[in-house]
Amino acid sequence: MLSDLEIINGELSPAFDSLNNIYSVTVSEDVDELVMEYSTTDGYIVNVIDNQDLDEGENEVYLQVIKDEEINTYTLLVYKESSEPVFNYEYVPETIEVESELPEYVAPLIIGSCLLIILIFAILLFKRKKS
Predict the structure, then answer these.
(1) Which end of the chain is more exposed for a tag (fewer CB within 10 A), N or C?
(2) To which H or E segment does residue 110 belong?
(3) pLDDT class for 42, splitting at 50, 70, 90?
(4) Cβ atoms 64, 73 nearer than 8 A
Protein backbone atom coordinates (compact mmCIF):
# COMPACT_ATOMS: atom_id res chain seq x y z
CA MET A 1 0.00 0.00 0.00
CA LEU A 2 0.94 3.62 -0.40
CA SER A 3 1.86 4.89 3.06
CA ASP A 4 2.69 8.52 2.26
CA LEU A 5 2.22 10.94 -0.64
CA GLU A 6 3.41 14.52 -1.00
CA ILE A 7 3.07 16.77 -4.04
CA ILE A 8 6.12 19.06 -4.19
CA ASN A 9 4.90 21.46 -6.90
CA GLY A 10 1.19 21.55 -6.05
CA GLU A 11 -1.44 21.46 -3.32
CA LEU A 12 -2.93 18.07 -2.42
CA SER A 13 -6.44 18.04 -1.01
CA PRO A 14 -7.52 16.42 1.27
CA ALA A 15 -4.45 15.44 3.28
CA PHE A 16 -3.16 11.99 2.34
CA ASP A 17 -4.87 8.98 3.85
CA SER A 18 -3.96 5.54 2.50
CA LEU A 19 -7.64 4.50 2.54
CA ASN A 20 -8.72 7.42 0.33
CA ASN A 21 -8.17 6.78 -3.39
CA ILE A 22 -9.21 10.13 -4.92
CA TYR A 23 -7.48 13.49 -4.39
CA SER A 24 -7.48 16.87 -6.03
CA VAL A 25 -4.28 18.74 -6.80
CA THR A 26 -3.93 22.38 -7.85
CA VAL A 27 -0.82 23.40 -9.76
CA SER A 28 0.32 26.68 -11.29
CA GLU A 29 0.30 27.39 -15.02
CA ASP A 30 4.02 26.62 -15.48
CA VAL A 31 3.83 23.01 -14.18
CA ASP A 32 4.00 20.33 -16.88
CA GLU A 33 4.13 17.29 -14.57
CA LEU A 34 3.68 16.55 -10.88
CA VAL A 35 6.76 16.18 -8.71
CA MET A 36 5.86 13.63 -6.04
CA GLU A 37 7.45 12.01 -3.04
CA TYR A 38 5.80 8.82 -1.86
CA SER A 39 6.56 5.76 0.17
CA THR A 40 5.06 2.28 0.18
CA THR A 41 4.92 -0.62 2.54
CA ASP A 42 7.32 -3.52 1.85
CA GLY A 43 7.15 -5.17 -1.55
CA TYR A 44 4.88 -2.68 -3.30
CA ILE A 45 5.93 -0.81 -6.44
CA VAL A 46 4.33 2.35 -7.88
CA ASN A 47 3.48 2.92 -11.53
CA VAL A 48 2.66 6.59 -12.37
CA ILE A 49 0.34 7.08 -15.37
CA ASP A 50 -0.48 10.27 -17.37
CA ASN A 51 1.89 12.53 -15.46
CA GLN A 52 3.36 14.45 -18.38
CA ASP A 53 2.28 17.40 -20.53
CA LEU A 54 -0.50 18.53 -18.19
CA ASP A 55 -3.04 20.75 -19.98
CA GLU A 56 -4.67 23.87 -18.59
CA GLY A 57 -7.83 22.95 -16.72
CA GLU A 58 -8.56 19.44 -15.47
CA ASN A 59 -6.22 16.44 -15.85
CA GLU A 60 -6.11 12.99 -14.28
CA VAL A 61 -2.93 11.35 -13.00
CA TYR A 62 -3.01 7.77 -11.71
CA LEU A 63 -0.75 6.01 -9.19
CA GLN A 64 -0.98 2.22 -9.44
CA VAL A 65 0.39 0.53 -6.34
CA ILE A 66 1.19 -3.08 -7.25
CA LYS A 67 2.24 -6.19 -5.34
CA ASP A 68 1.85 -9.63 -6.88
CA GLU A 69 -1.77 -9.83 -8.10
CA GLU A 70 -2.98 -6.88 -5.98
CA ILE A 71 -3.39 -3.48 -7.67
CA ASN A 72 -4.64 -0.37 -5.90
CA THR A 73 -5.12 2.80 -7.99
CA TYR A 74 -5.01 6.32 -6.58
CA THR A 75 -6.54 9.04 -8.77
CA LEU A 76 -5.21 12.59 -8.67
CA LEU A 77 -7.59 15.10 -10.24
CA VAL A 78 -5.11 17.80 -11.25
CA TYR A 79 -6.30 21.33 -11.98
CA LYS A 80 -3.73 23.40 -13.85
CA GLU A 81 -4.38 27.12 -13.56
CA SER A 82 -4.71 29.18 -16.72
CA SER A 83 -2.47 32.09 -17.64
CA GLU A 84 -5.14 33.71 -19.79
CA PRO A 85 -6.83 36.79 -18.33
CA VAL A 86 -10.39 36.41 -17.16
CA PHE A 87 -11.42 39.44 -19.24
CA ASN A 88 -10.64 39.17 -22.93
CA TYR A 89 -9.87 42.61 -24.33
CA GLU A 90 -10.15 41.40 -27.92
CA TYR A 91 -13.94 41.19 -27.64
CA VAL A 92 -14.59 44.61 -26.14
CA PRO A 93 -17.05 46.40 -28.41
CA GLU A 94 -16.11 49.73 -29.89
CA THR A 95 -17.10 52.77 -27.89
CA ILE A 96 -20.43 54.32 -28.75
CA GLU A 97 -20.63 58.07 -28.99
CA VAL A 98 -23.64 59.55 -27.24
CA GLU A 99 -24.92 63.04 -27.89
CA SER A 100 -24.38 65.14 -24.80
CA GLU A 101 -27.30 67.52 -25.45
CA LEU A 102 -30.93 66.51 -25.72
CA PRO A 103 -33.07 67.81 -28.56
CA GLU A 104 -35.12 70.94 -27.75
CA TYR A 105 -38.47 69.15 -27.71
CA VAL A 106 -37.54 66.63 -24.97
CA ALA A 107 -37.85 68.96 -21.93
CA PRO A 108 -41.36 70.29 -22.84
CA LEU A 109 -42.46 66.74 -23.65
CA ILE A 110 -41.39 65.49 -20.19
CA ILE A 111 -43.01 68.46 -18.42
CA GLY A 112 -46.23 68.03 -20.40
CA SER A 113 -46.36 64.29 -19.63
CA CYS A 114 -45.89 64.96 -15.91
CA LEU A 115 -48.64 67.59 -15.90
CA LEU A 116 -50.99 65.23 -17.76
CA ILE A 117 -50.36 62.44 -15.20
CA ILE A 118 -50.99 64.89 -12.31
CA LEU A 119 -54.21 66.08 -13.97
CA ILE A 120 -55.46 62.50 -14.44
CA PHE A 121 -54.77 61.66 -10.78
CA ALA A 122 -56.50 64.87 -9.65
CA ILE A 123 -59.58 64.03 -11.73
CA LEU A 124 -59.69 60.49 -10.35
CA LEU A 125 -59.36 61.72 -6.76
CA PHE A 126 -61.97 64.45 -7.28
CA LYS A 127 -64.49 62.01 -8.76
CA ARG A 128 -64.03 59.59 -5.85
CA LYS A 129 -64.86 62.29 -3.29
CA LYS A 130 -68.16 63.09 -4.99
CA SER A 131 -69.31 59.47 -5.11
Answers:
(1) C
(2) helix 106-130
(3) confident
(4) yes
